[in-house]
Write a structure and sequence with these properties.
With about 280 residues, this protein is mainly alpha-helical. It is built from 13 helices and no strands. The chain has a single domain, classed as MetI-like fold (Orthogonal Bundle).
Length: about 280
């Protein structure tokens, strides 16, 4: 029964990943020409590590991750906490809050492009109404200071539903006797959350934080559709950098080397985060 899954993983994930190691050591182009590819050893890695665009893309990904993980996980926990205490129509509200996650990201980006449109988008219009016309329209996706936070807000809203479901499952597994004992001790709602709910979600938090971090490090679609890495490279990411090198520049060997560096970085972040969060148990 495992054979079909193993074949699928081997053909579409494992084998292409192993092929990237061979390609990373060559100057292979996306469309092979009359001149065969040459072995260039570690030159691709050297060129990447000395490219300022690569380091800016890496810094953008780190910034995005540091912003989106607490925002997305915090919002998911809040919604899950409210749903867990919802007595009527719980399944209906669960489906409503989960809807953004199952909506194709391309559609979500188109919707948010309208919301963030300059100068008469929904966001600018709402702020102008709330400020009685004093607010000046902002080019949310065209200004370096606001472009990445705008993508953070979009991404957190679109993907929080997955974390919400995990948190909801974790909340429902907490023993009610713990809350009853806390009530007997005279604790209030805040103390129940701090001393009962939050410690009981320790393993759930590890899972949610790691999954959210890995997803954030692979940011691509939102950037590719909304900003194409701009303005002035402030939203460029590693995956978008790889896409530009491999498919636009047709340097598949160079892109393969960048993919390997991204893999090493993601694994390093995963191990560090797992050790850091594991030490809190």
């Amino acid at each position: 029964m495992m054979l079909p899954a193993l074949v699928f993983l081997s053909v579409f994930i494992i084998f292409p990943f192993l092929m990237s190691f061979r390609l990373a050591l060559t100057n292979q182009s996306l469309i092979p020409g009359p001149i065969p590819a040459k072995f260039v050893a570690l030159r691709n890695f050297k060129d990447i590590l000395t490219d300022t665009d690569f380091w800016q893309a890496l810094w953008n990904v780190v910034r995005f991750t540091l912003m989106v993980v607490p925002l997305q996980c915090g919002f998911a926990l809040l919604v899950a906490f409210l749903l867990d205490r919802q007595k009527t129509a719980k399944n209906f509200f669960r489906g409503v809050f989960f809807l953004p996650y199952i909506t194709p990201i391309v559609i979500v980006c188109v919707i948010w492009a309208t919301v963030l449109q300059y100068p008469a988008g929904v966001m600018n219009t709402v702020f102008q109404l709330l400020s009685f016309g004093l607010f000046q329209p902002v080019d949310w996706l065209g200004t370096p200071f606001t472009a990445l936070p705008s993508i953070v807000m979009l991404s957190a809203w679109q993907a929080y539903g997955f974390q919400m479901i995990i948190y909801l499952a974790g909340l429902q597994n907490i023993n009610e006797e713990l809350y009853e004992a806390a009530e007997i001790d005279g604790t209030n709602a805040r103390q129940k959350f701090l001393y009962v709910t939050w410690p009981s979600l320790a393993q759930t938090n590890i899972l949610v934080f790691i999954i959210t971090t890995i997803q954030a490090l692979k940011l691509f679609t939102q950037v590719n559709i909304l900003t194409n890495g701009g303005p002035r490279g402030t939203t460029n990411t590693i995956v978008h950098y790889i896409y530009e090198a491999g498919f636009v520049g047709q340097k598949i060997g160079y892109a393969s080397a960048a993919s390997i560096l991204l893999f090493i970085f993601v694994v390093g972040v995963f191990l560090f985060q797992r050790r850091l969060l594991g030490d809190t148990n």
